[in-house]
User: Fold this.
Amino acid sequence: MNLEILCTQVQLVAREVGRFIFDERLKFTSDDIIHKGKADMVTYVDKTAESRIVTALRELLPGSGFIAEEGTAVDNGEKFRWVIDPLDGTTNYIHGISPFAVSIALMEDQEIVMGVIYEISLDEMFYAWRGSKAFLNGKEIHVSTASKTADALIATGFPYYDFSKLDNYMEAMNFFMRNSHGMRRLGSAAADMAYVAAGRFEGFYEHALHSWDVAAGIIIVKQAGGRVCDFSGGENYLFGGEMIACNANYFDEFYEIVNKHLG
Assistant:
């Protein structure tokens, strides 16, 4: 399998589906919104986008499995599995704000070997595959070189269904707000991780995540020179629901702060 060629094909899929998502943004109404939770919503756009992605990826890699947010396809333990979020940032999308993204990753056994994140509103395609550099719209990207909190811009996501660590979250935010360049909550974990890879953010942390939120971002951050771990410094970040992503220079300090409050 040539991952570079496959990655190029997946980018075409992401861009085509992204165009559909963009074009539909002014057509749906509140009647089209389904509430999975108070702040967890889905629309026909999410479901249709995922169905289109699954159909296209099945043609690109027959016999592969799927871990997909909206459940249009299932994981049966195949050697190759796609991890898909058809619209990461649905709440942003519904409210007409950015960012919102298509996120597609490919796993071979337990290893993520390719990731594509297409941030639709800015037409930005982030991607990487096993052994490659990381790229944005054809140009190589790299994590930032900042090495301390005082020089860092930090991204996070607010929990919307699991509030068990809310007090700890506020403590961590209090520290970063007082000691860094600031904090941002964009509403799309995929975009957050892509922006770490591109050097826009120094670090990102969040809990109550799903695999489809972060799978593509993991390999893009790594191939851009960054590091990832869970809140305890381990490797249970894909399915463990918690993520730290950071540039290499700042990683040790960033991890120590997040671990102190949330580990």
